Amino acid sequence: MCVFLRTNQPVSDVGLLRDVADAFKHHRPDRSSARILVSTDVVPIGSGWGQMRWGEGKYGGVEQVIISTKDGDKRALSSVLQNVFDAWMTLLRQPLSPIGQY
Q1: 83 with 13: CB under 8 angstroms?
Q2: 15 DSSP 8-state letter
Q3: Helix 77-91 to helix 13-26 angle, to the nearest 10 degrees?
Q4: C-alpha angle 62/63/65, rounded to 5°?
Q5: How far apart are CA 3 and CA 11, in angstroms?
Q6: The whole model's pTM is what?
Q7: H-state helical runs in 1-102
Q8: CB 63 within 8 A of CB 44
Q9: Which residue among 8, 69, 93, 99 has the highest number of C-beta atoms inside a 10 angstrom radius?
């Protein structure tokens, strides 16, 4: 049910958001399947060109909250939140508002 910014590309952002919450609760998630090693892997920083998925996050190196996963992937928390919100609204059969308007 969870797709990347309303495309057909499925993503596991619901699980990633769970791992972020778990990391902030316990500092180090104890599940071996967690995609985040430690809570400091979620930080507000500026990102350079090519560090994020195409179309994700803010442009121009503006500071934003970035999630660094164990496999080296970098994701914008804002995009993960949008994807999870869309997944829940789709599951509940509710209309999707324009991106960025929760």
Answers
A1: yes
A2: H
A3: 120
A4: 130
A5: 5
A6: 0.77
A7: 13-26, 77-91
A8: yes
A9: 69
For the stretch 14-68, pLDDT in tens is 999 999 999 988 888 888 889 999 888 887 766 655 556 555 656 566 677 889 8
* Domain chopping of the chain, boundaries: 4-91
pLDDT at 32: 86
Tokens of 6: 């309303």
Helix, strand, coil fractions of the chain, as percent rounded to 5: 35, 15, 50
Sorted by sequence, the CB contacts under 8 Å of residue 38 that are 6+ apart come out as: 23, 27, 28
Please, which residues have CB within 8 angstroms of residue 33's CB and are 6 or more apart in sequence? none
Q: What one-letter code names the amino acid at 81?
A: L
- 29-58 burial: b if 16+ Cβ within 10 Å, else e: beeeebbbeebebbeeeebeeeebeeebbe
